[in-house]
Amino acid sequence: MLAKPWIFWSVSTNFCAVRAASALPHGVLPLIESNTFLLRKEFRLSLLSRFSHDLAIDLGTANTCVFARGKGIVVSEPSIVAINKTNGRIEAVGTDAKEMLGRTPGNIVAIKPMKDGVIADFEAAEKMLAHFIRKAHRRSGWLRPRVVIGVPSEITQVERRAVKDSAMRAKASEVHLIEEAMAAAIGAGMPITEASGNMVVDIGGGTTDIAVISLAGVVYGKSVRIAGNELDEAIILHARKVHNLLIGERTAERIKIEVGSAYPIEGRLTIEVKGRHMTEGKPKTVTMDDEEIRCAMADPVRSIVQAVHDALERIPPELSADIFDRGIILTGGGSLLKNLDKRLRDETGLPVQLAEDPLSSVVLGAGKMLSDFNLLRRISLD
To answer: What are 246-259's pLDDT values in tens digits?
Structure first.
């Protein structure tokens, strides 16, 4: 005599499934219940995603970019917060706060919450993230987006937890962390899932992340805390030593962008630099040229080049052959330094190419993960 058929009902928001079997072996029922729970959870997530924008965030030392699924990059602003010390209120975030650097009254302070790619001021970072998420989301407060965030490859567990906690307190429902170099490679269009070597050098504001990637995994990864900010500091130090001139961060960055280079350039570039004379104590203007600034930035540039050399020495021979054929991809704002690609090409003897959109490679790569959760689970740091 046949056993009575077993009927299992799986009820969710919009469907009802009936499964029957004449006999169930021991242990199958819990498995079915578990699978049904997962199906119900996936359905809820897909339903919520119809009403909320999942976000990808490049939480950089210098700039923060936010990518909203279906919309593209919706926020790209400096990672700076201006806070009123008297009442703790945020006066400005992003571009408006950057304009206040070095110009604030005593009761307002402009803070950079990120240092060397990690959170240095937890409270300010949380307020900044909440502001950018709210600006990107533009929906009702009860909707909490899923968030993918790019972080440096060698951050500690404590630093990783600080990033996740800040995002959760900023009203995110889920937070996934991925390595910035991996995200940059995806954003640059590199075939990371193939069984071949892909080398990416992501030069940001606080860190330079170097990775060799194959089969969606990092074969070699290194993060050195020398990048764009170190170049700015080298220019500030040079102006102080050689010209007795005190200049600010914004001025140093402008000098770097306009006349800075990593390798000799054609023609001569000059710039008028205004600051305060250290001994006379009054405003003064001096003229600097590209060769002078190139010499001023020589040490940090040399450190970045050496980090690339170290990576090439530590990867397996088969991947070295792939990189010899494919070359190195440069991403990040620091890669825009004039002739940096030529300097690396000259030092390594390999093809070096600048990504199509180096400033946005990380956030574009993280954004692609919003629609490919299978790949996200493979590369996530969780």
So the answer is: 999 889 999 999 99
